[in-house]
Structure formats: C-alpha cells, structure tokens
Amino acid sequence: MDLKERETIIIQKNYFIEKKMILLTGECDGYGKLCARVMVGGSSFLVDRTPLHLLDDTLTHIGYDLRGAMASAKLILGERSRCPIIVNPYLGICLFPNKSPHNADCIWFNPEHIVRTIAMGSKTEVELSNGHSIIVDSRLAFFNNRIHLANQLKQISIKRGNHPSPTVFYLEPPIGHQLIKEKTGKYNFSNLEDCQK
Q: DSSP string spanning 64-96?
C-alpha cells in the first residue's frame, strides 16, 4: 500500500457495538497497527482499537467490562474455551468468537445475523443477513455448536435478568412490634420469623 492509499483510508476513532453489527475481526492498518474491522449492514470500516479493546470499550460504556463478561459466560455455560459473551445485556447483544479471541484474525459473530451455515470440507461457509458470506476455518458441527452456545447464553442471561431470584413473599409483622437488643447483644429478629409462621 503506498502513501496515497494510506491517506484515503478513514479509520474511526471508536465504535460501540450495536444490534446491526454483523461481525468484527482484527485487521492491520497501512502502518501495521492492529485495528478492528467492523461489518454493519452492507458496509465495513476500520476502528482504531483492537477487537478486544473494542469489546471492552462497549462493555465499559454501559458499566461492565470484558473480563467480567468472559468470566460470567464461563460460569453460566460451564468451563469452556472460546465462550460467547454478552456485549450489551440491555439490547440483548451476544457475540461469539470462531477461534481464540487472542488471535488477531479471530472473528466475532453476532448470531442474529447468521442466516445459514454450509459445510465446505473442513471449513464452513457462513451466509450473513446482508447477503454476503464468509468462509471460516471451522468444521460445520463446531461452528454450529458456537451458535448454539451463544443463543443459550443469551436466553439464560435474559431469563436470569428478568427473574434474578426465586419469588419470596414477605408478611407484614404486627403493627407496633419493636426490635429489641437481647442480652446476647443481638436484636430479636427471630420474633419476626415467628410472626410469618
């Protein structure tokens, strides 16, 4: 790439992942710096952040972080490598990597934009919602399992978010009940438990 071509490439400073984002991967700019290539709809652009930084930027923007998202996904799904992550729980955005996230050429897919997957020997052709397709170095069964795990993580997270714990009913104590510090130094909360029986 010559100097004129480098000057014409516009690189965005930052980007927060949205529901319309189809995928993101690593790509070096004209100077060899790793950036994030983002595909949204029928277009794509470079962002001056690595893919992992871009994911962390998005999570940090809404009060979370990448390390926590990865740890939570492993706890919810069981100890697994290449776990999907919830990137935005409010918008229900979940992404999954096709290989180790630490590889520069790892592709993070939004499963909502995968229309169909087709086996191509030891590779998989992934048809996307924008009419394009991409061939990845993953067997069909492995890739489809990644999609399944991402959808499973999203469903479990939404369910837990809407119903964070079992429903508990509280009975009002009799009016005028006073909590008193007993000789042991503890308050008589046990009287409130007796009232609920």
A: --HHHHHHHHHHHH-S-SS--EEEETTTTEEEE
Half-sphere exposure in the Cβ direction for 91 (13 Å, CA): 16
Tokens representing residue 20 in the block: 């319309």
Token pair listed for 46? 């470079």
The closest alpha carbon to 34, from 131, 137, 116, 103, belongs to 103
Question: pLDDT tens digits, residue range 1-20?
Answer: 444 444 456 899 999 999 99
Q: How confident is the model at residue 195 (pLDDT cuts 50, 70, 90)?
A: low
C-alpha R_g of the chain: 24
What is the pTM for the complete model shown? 0.79
On the 0-12 / 13-18 / 19+ scale of CB atoms within 10 A, 2 is exposed
Distances (CA, A) of 80 to 72, 119, 146, 177: 11, 24, 11, 52
DSSP of 4-17 = HHHHH--EES----
